[in-house]
Amino acid sequence: MTKEDDEQSSLAWFGKGMRGIFSLPAFILMLSFVGFCSLTAQAGIPVEQVVFMVGMVWALPAKVILVSSMMSGAGLATAFLAVSLSSVRLMPMVAALIPELRSPRTPTWLLLFLSHFVAITAWVFAMEKVPQVPRERRVAFFAGFGITLVVANMLLVAVVYHFVADFPPIVAGCLFFLTPVYFLASIWHSARHPVVYVALLFGLIGGPLFYWLLPEFDILLAGLVGGTLAWFVERLWRLRKEVGA
Amino acid sequence: MTWHDGWWAYAFIAIAGWLATDIWRWLGVIAGNKLRDDSEALNWVRAVATALVAAVIAKLILYPTGVLEQSPLWLRVGSVALGAAAFFLFGRKPAVGIASAIACLAAGLWWLGF
């Protein structure tokens, strides 16, 4: 393969990633951002700051917490702590994605830059699609999708902020519900490792359980405890099968 | 309600928003870079990441915000259960599961007079 072919192909895969903007998950996320517009408009945050926030923070739950900290007049340290706590989950998500994305030639600085575009939607999308992309092209594919998704939502917020309208209740309810239902179907459908099924189940149970026990750290604990337990159970099954075989 | 103007608002968003989230993404890159493709450690990280996302999903279903806050719990859980049943019965196609769950929720909300 010549150098030119190589670059062209990366560009082509970047383009294929960009086209991911016309997909169900991208569509659902954009609807969530319409909701975010009405939250920030009601909170009285100027539109330039909202667009800045979308580009800089990106993860939607972190932004919602940031906005509520701003509204409650919390200090910088308090807001930083609250947002950090909600964002710890990004670490294992990125760590699980990186071995799928990188090739031996991918520089670390590029991965550090691209990690900014990871949030739940991009993560679920990438974990599902990336295995079908040749390894050398995965970074280009993810960059195309991730960057397009962020830029598109920044533009969307800049425009929609001025026309915030409420959906009829049934429509609003169904739009909200699309997010969890889509994540569930997509994760189950795209799982290529048996541990994912067990972890999904344990996380679904662990979420409400830890919300009831320790609401401050519910997501974190559900992930750590539920995930570790799922890993342990699946490993036990695997080892027993190997012994039995 | 008003919020600060000028550079302080942007500095606040940058520190409490951008830095507070991207630190974790960067740590994820550093940790993920050390993981081998087929290692048991990656399997564990994968399990933890999936369970975290699953916990977020469960909270969205059980403790929703907005309109669904006033909807009964049985309707939301029932819709997901119906969607799951359709998903497994009809060839495990995500679109089938999603459409059934949403249709069930919409019918329920309409019936309850939303």
What is the topological layout?
The complex is a heterodimer of chains A (245) and B (114).
Chain A: H1 3-18, H2 24-43, H3 47-57, H4 60-71, H5 76-87, H6 90-101, H7 108-114, H8 120-129, H9 138-160, H10 169-190, H11 194-213, H12 218-244
Chain B: H1 6-34, H2 40-62, H3 73-89, H4 94-111
Helix pairs in contact in B: 3-4
What's the tally of helices of chain A? 12
Category by helix and strand content of chain B = mainly alpha
Describe the biggest sheet of chain B? none
- Strand composition percent of chain B: under 5%
- Coarse morphology of chain B: flat
Please give a structural write-up.
- The complex is a heterodimer of chains A (245) and B (114).
- Chain A is mainly α and 245 residues long.
- Chain A contains twelve helices and no strands.
- Chain A has helices spanning 3-18, 24-43, 47-57, 60-71, 76-87, 90-101, 108-114, 120-129, 138-160, 169-190, 194-213, 218-244.
- In chain A, helix 2 packs parallel to helix 9 (138-160), helix 2 packs across helix 10 and helix 3 packs antiparallel against helix 9.
- Chain B has helices at residues 6-34, 40-62, 73-89, 94-111.
- The mean pLDDT of chain B is 91.
- The longest helix of chain B has 29 residues, at 6-34.
- Classes of the chains: A mainly alpha (245), B mainly alpha (114).
